[in-house]
Amino acid sequence: MTSYAARAVNLKQKLWPDIHKDAWSDYRWQLRNRLTGRKGLSRLLRHAGQPERLESLDKCLSAYKWAATPYYISLIEKDIDRDPVALQVIPSPEEIGPARPHSSPDPLSEKRYSPFPGLIHRYKDRAVVLVSNHCASYCRHCNRKRTWNRPEFVPAGKTAWQAVTEYLENHSQIREVLVSGGDPLLLPQKYLENILDLLTSVPNVEVLRIGTRLPVVLPMAITDKLCRMLKKYRPIWINTHFNHPAEITKEAQRACERLQMSGIPLSNQSVLLKGVNDDFKTIKNLCCNLQKIMVRPYYLFHCDFVKGTDHFRTDIRKGIDIMEKMWGDTGGMCIPRYVVDLPGGMGKARVMPSDLERLDQDVATFKTFEGRVIKLHLS
Questions:
Q1: More confident residue, 356 or 228
Q2: Based on the number of CB atoms within 10 Å of its own CB, is 320 exposed (0-12), middle (13-18) or buried (19 or more)?
Q3: Are the CB atoms for 128 and 120 separated by under 8 Å?
Q4: Is residue 102 part of a domain?
Q5: Is 138 left (phi over 0), alpha (psi -120 to 50) or beta?
Q6: Nearest Cα to 115, choosing from 37, 191, 33, 174?
Q7: Is the domain of 249 the same as that of 296?
Q8: Could you list the active site residues?
Q9: Distance between CA atoms of 264 and 210, rounded to whole angstroms?
Q10: In the listed set 96, 129, 162, which residue is the last one of a domain according to the structure?
Q11: Residues 1-28 pLDDT 10s
Q12: Do 292 and 171 fall into the same domain?
């Protein structure tokens, strides 16, 4: 596990030299003191020793939001050109460079599968409800960058939410609802509870899932009060989003434990990001450290073809190579499923190397993780 104190001391002391530990641990202070926009980024780059980068980012800041919590910024090391946290949170001119031919603002065609803004029904038995477009920190690889300035979430109000519940009731095959955004756990707690109440009032909705990055970027916001409220809506699952071992701090571990001790299981969805985690050692360390804090590695996503994220995308063969090495090197509980979310709303495709070399009528031929060939007689 990462030693948070050892990593955080430099930028934390430069940007917030007099902060008391009680204030630092208060999520409300963290939110009030987020660095945002050009002014906040200028301050960060100045203290990181690269103030000259700001001018090249003006167009990017005009196109996309920027904000980051003091806590998450404090995980950045000096060398922001290669730091895995900095690469995820500091804007890059490449975000507004020429898009690759197959990139688009909405490559998964979420709008096409939205009967009205804020509800996405792409799979038969589950639906996504977008409840916000706000995040504590804005990840530069976000697959919904298009919504940062042009919201697509369900607006507050009885009429809008009545439409959501009526749609779910009229599509009785929907048994699972994913509450997403933005970050749902940033909503005022009473409002979030009202949403969960409405969703669980639909007879055919059996399970809720919440997607959040707060355990990574603002772990102090996972309070006992929040966990007590969420516990009332079990079965509820939480998917979080750790991408690098440096993000698994003692603070993050405590946040995950609070949720787990409330009876809420946690899974993790990582994205394979060029320069951040696109090597075997990093992914293995990430997944093993997740297992240590009892967060199940669930998906490793190939970076979506989202406009503004092309510079993060790796060769899919690199992902396959990582997964092949993972299978022979560590236990199955540490191994996520490597998937590509296919363009056009065609769904997730598993990109897993197979040990089945050949299947004949009576014999299956396998390759072991050590490279040996084994024939298994089927009759």
A1: 228
A2: middle
A3: yes
A4: no
A5: beta
A6: 174
A7: yes
A8: 122-123, 126, 135, 139, 142, 144, 304, 341, 348
A9: 11
A10: 96
A11: 544 444 444 899 999 999 999 999 999 9
A12: yes
Q: Is residue 369's pLDDT more than 80?
A: no
- Total count of domains within the chain: 2
Rg for the chain, CA atoms, rounded:
22
The answer on pLDDT for 212 being more than 80 is yes
Q: How far apart are the first and last CA of the chain?
A: 48
> Residue 120 corresponds to which tokens in the numbers above?
């996405």
For the packed helices 4-15 and 37-47, what is the interaxial angle rounded to 10 degrees?
110
Print the domain residue range for 46.
4-96
**Pairing status of strand 356-359 against strand 347-350:** unpaired
**Greatest CA span in the chain, whole angstroms?**
73
Percent residues over pLDDT 70 in the chain: 97
Residues 92 and 136 in one domain: no
Tokens 């009332």 correspond to: 232
In a shared domain, residues 77 and 128: no
Residue 315 lies in a domain: yes
- Residue 200, pLDDT above cutoff 70: yes
The mean pLDDT of the chain is 93
* 311, part of any domain: yes
Q: Which residue has the higher pLDDT, 25 or 356?
A: 25
The total number of residues shown for the chain amounts to: 379
Looking at the fold, whether 29 and 148 belong to one and the same domain comes out as: no
Q: Does residue 370 sit within a domain? A: no
Rounded distance between C-alpha atoms, residue 167 and residue 160, angstroms:
11
**Cβ atoms of residues 264 and 240 within 8 Å:** no
pLDDT in tens, 63-88: 999 999 999 999 998 688 899 999 99
159 by Cβ neighbours in 10 Å (0-12 / 13-18 / 19+) ranks as exposed
Alpha-carbon span 189 to 333, nearest angstrom = 33
